[in-house]
Amino acid sequence: MKEGGTHLYATPALGDAVTDYARAHSSALPRHIVDYHADASTKRDDSDMLSSNFQSQLQLLLANSIGAKRVLEIGVYVGYSAMVWSQAVGPDGFVTGLEFDPELAKIATDALAARDINNVNIIVGNAAETLPKLPLPQQGPYDLVFLDADKTGYSNYLSVLLARSAPSAAPAERLLRPGALIIADNVLRRGYVAAADSSLADGAFGRVGWSHDRAGWDEHIAAVRRFNDECVAEPRLETVLLPLWDGVTIMRLRD
Question: Is Methyltransferase a UniProt keyword of this protein (predicted)?
């Protein structure tokens, strides 16, 4: 969700003012990242798939707080978030991105190259197939994973991540290190995931740019709910779901 705010205040205008104030009093993103966000927002009809700059300010801080040097991103889109993670890991770290769409992968690759960002590697293919076979980094397990791909695949991605990071495995045999962060985006879907009464979602897919039918929307929402339930029930994860932006879940692998 490219907008920075969630309207939790008395009026939408007040909510926007609070968001602008909070963003201005948070450490700024580098100019090349902000400029690319603005460019993609202007030129792409599907730019609502972008994370907001404000959300990225938080995610950059989270990555820096754990000293992340290896980041795995599932769902690259046009490479905006990859730029954020690249900034976090620095020149001696690296980012691996998994992207289903070859055209989007090329856009992302070109955008990164145009900004002399060379610590991001994008693998094209269905993450349901590429993630289970992803080579283990020679430098050590990943420190952070960002899930921002097809929402119906989230549960499977989480299952693979945990299975490939067994507590008994040696560091060289784990995909994620103990204490790694897993950040999942869009886990509230404009709030409709939290609606116990499904009738509250009537017409929602039209308002959020959903291009499929109501049955597809209901399946989509149900998949996100299952994922959220699995996250909080998983004993290996310490989980918090933030009702910010389009919903962000932050998990720590605690074995």
Answer: yes
